[in-house]
């Protein structure tokens, strides 16, 4: 064998490569595009979209400040794009430095035989293969093309069945673009009814025109459809589900022994942080013979709409009702606390769900920076804290995280 481990795809599973290298194993990462090291998250997903969203929110906040007299502003999208490119290059270079000692093999890689990857006609082998090929948009133009724009259009049309369409709609609405969003509101049915209603109201208040996806035009529209797994490079027989995801067990191992699949391609959770944790688990299993499994319900999810965002961890109210689980619900209105006004999030709210013994089953939050707020609830869920223990937590005041525990 040429290597102990080959990673097919250079996304966030590189965290596992670092652990494997530190254990003294010979590791290679096969990545199609040298400029794409770090994956969708770094180049076309989490990092650039959140940079755009938060820069747009800054401008929105200044315009709406009662202390300033700013009526209009022109958003310099070209400068923001240049900032994005500098940031992603810096982070990509940082990954290469971090993984010194790992071989980077650039070119289109295919798993052509068990333990054998072919890259541009050259074959390399490894005892362990980690598939980290991710997903791609099925239609063009899409979010990648939106992030390539250098001027804010006067108007644009966005269509899709992925909730990420809402992020792009908010992004450009905050840049003073007139947005038409073709989206099925039923795609948000997993949310608490009150949160869903408040979120949709926020979109309408931003002058985002909401229309059914079925009415989307054929042309001049950006498609934010749910991504599809990148598995054309898998030329061996491996079990896949009806949507094309690679099926894995609780070790993230595929139907082919010593071949693993992590991240979006396995369909467990289409989230960068899930990919990172899964890769660490596989690395630990290869090194020590024992990894760990993170159940999907324990993986936090954030929808980075702005100015308010949505986050959840554990089970939602809709999921608990569907399961027929007995639970109690505790709600928090951020309007009732000083922090709501301080952070301009009076419209925010949260719902926490507990079992009959007082253990946290799940939580949903709508607030400014909901992704930051959900962190403490994720720790609470992992730690299996009950109501009594949660009520003893002493969190900094005044913060959004604190108020979630002040009503329990």
From TrEMBL:
<feature type="coiled-coil region">
    <location>
        <begin position="70"/>
        <end position="97"/>
    </location>
</feature>
<feature type="domain" description="Pyridine nucleotide-disulphide oxidoreductase dimerisation">
    <location>
        <begin position="299"/>
        <end position="403"/>
    </location>
</feature>
<keyword id="KW-0676">Redox-active center</keyword>
<dbReference type="InterPro" id="IPR004099">
    <property type="entry name" value="Pyr_nucl-diS_OxRdtase_dimer"/>
</dbReference>
<protein>
    <submittedName>
        <fullName>NAD(P)/FAD-dependent oxidoreductase</fullName>
    </submittedName>
</protein>
<keyword id="KW-1015">Disulfide bond</keyword>
<dbReference type="GO" id="GO:0050660">
    <property type="term" value="F:flavin adenine dinucleotide binding"/>
</dbReference>
<dbReference type="Pfam" id="PF07992">
    <property type="entry name" value="Pyr_redox_2"/>
</dbReference>
<dbReference type="InterPro" id="IPR036188">
    <property type="entry name" value="FAD/NAD-bd_sf"/>
</dbReference>
<keyword id="KW-0285">Flavoprotein</keyword>
<keyword id="KW-0520">NAD</keyword>
<dbReference type="Pfam" id="PF02852">
    <property type="entry name" value="Pyr_redox_dim"/>
</dbReference>
<dbReference type="GO" id="GO:0006103">
    <property type="term" value="P:2-oxoglutarate metabolic process"/>
</dbReference>
<dbReference type="InterPro" id="IPR016156">
    <property type="entry name" value="FAD/NAD-linked_Rdtase_dimer_sf"/>
</dbReference>
<dbReference type="GO" id="GO:0004148">
    <property type="term" value="F:dihydrolipoyl dehydrogenase (NADH) activity"/>
</dbReference>
<keyword id="KW-0274">FAD</keyword>
<dbReference type="InterPro" id="IPR012999">
    <property type="entry name" value="Pyr_OxRdtase_I_AS"/>
</dbReference>
<dbReference type="InterPro" id="IPR023753">
    <property type="entry name" value="FAD/NAD-binding_dom"/>
</dbReference>
<dbReference type="InterPro" id="IPR050151">
    <property type="entry name" value="Class-I_Pyr_Nuc-Dis_Oxidored"/>
</dbReference>
<keyword id="KW-0560">Oxidoreductase</keyword>
<keyword id="KW-0175">Coiled coil</keyword>
<comment type="similarity">
    <text>Belongs to the class-I pyridine nucleotide-disulfide oxidoreductase family.</text>
</comment>
<feature type="domain" description="FAD/NAD(P)-binding">
    <location>
        <begin position="3"/>
        <end position="212"/>
    </location>
</feature>
